[in-house]
Amino acid sequence: MKYLVVLPTYNEAENIRKVLDSLMNYENIHVLVIDDNSQDGTAEIVKTYPEFNNKVFLIQRPYKMGLGTAYVTGFKWGLERGYDIFFEMDADLSHDPKDIPRFIEKMKEGYDVVIGSRYINNTISVVGWDFKRLLISKFGNWYATTILGLKQFSDITSGYRAYRRTCLEKIDLDKIKSNGYAFQIEMAYKLYKRGCKITEIPIIFYERNGGSSKMSRKIALEAAIIVWRLKFGKA
């Protein structure tokens, strides 16, 4: 099996080497960094990494083009090169690379999509968030899963995931409309509707070690709207 971790980056110089070091502990994992013209030297750090162009690859984009298009670009790149399993992961160490074997274990059980959930079994596994941010995240999940009829999932907005190649091939990636965190909702919904077998595993989410969060009011609004567009078949 060929595994590819897609890492979208924008000004992650403080974190990118640590993330790559952790991922290189896995022999069969390759990493594709999609950098949106970071101004802090993120791309230069990737280019000088010892495994660059061997196990670590880089696509540089001319400006900040967003999370959704970064993942779509990464998925297309990996599909063309024959990768079997694709991981989404934040590049700021919010997602622990040590969880990767548990995702792979679920894939071997026959699941097409594995979502790392912060809220599985009515628990809250988030470190470093204040109450307001936690409330927004919980409400966002309740809002999206209720409207879309996906109440069986506890964390549809989670960005730590694994997709099977055959599942990604069931959707037209060029028609993915959302670009912020709504991307996670749209992907889960469309893959579920196409019959992909989806499950969740518990993860612990850690607030970023360095750099700044990419969350904004515009991104939250996009997520609120995309749910209704999906429900009525407009996306």
Automatic annotation (TrEMBL):
InterPro entries: DPM1-like (IPR039528), Glyco_trans_2-like (IPR001173), Nucleotide-diphossugar_trans (IPR029044). Keywords: Glycosyltransferase, Transferase. CDD domains: DPM1_like. SUPFAM superfamilies: Nucleotide-diphospho-sugar transferases. GO terms for biological process: glycolipid biosynthetic process. Its EC number is 2.4.1.83. GO terms for molecular function: dolichyl-phosphate beta-D-mannosyltransferase activity. Residues 5-171 form the Glycosyltransferase 2-like domain. One of its GO terms (cellular component) is membrane. It holds the Pfam family Glycos_transf_2. Gene3D superfamilies: Spore Coat Polysaccharide Biosynthesis Protein SpsA, Chain A (3.90.550.10). Belongs to the glycosyltransferase 2 family. PANTHER family: DOLICHOL-PHOSPHATE MANNOSYLTRANSFERASE SUBUNIT 1 (PTHR43398:SF1). This is Dolichol-phosphate mannosyltransferase (Dolichol-phosphate mannose synthase) (Dolichyl-phosphate beta-D-mannosyltransferase) (Mannose-P-dolichol synthase) (MPD synthase) (DPMsynthase). It comes from Sulfurihydrogenibium azorense (strain DSM 15241 / OCM 825 / Az-Fu1).
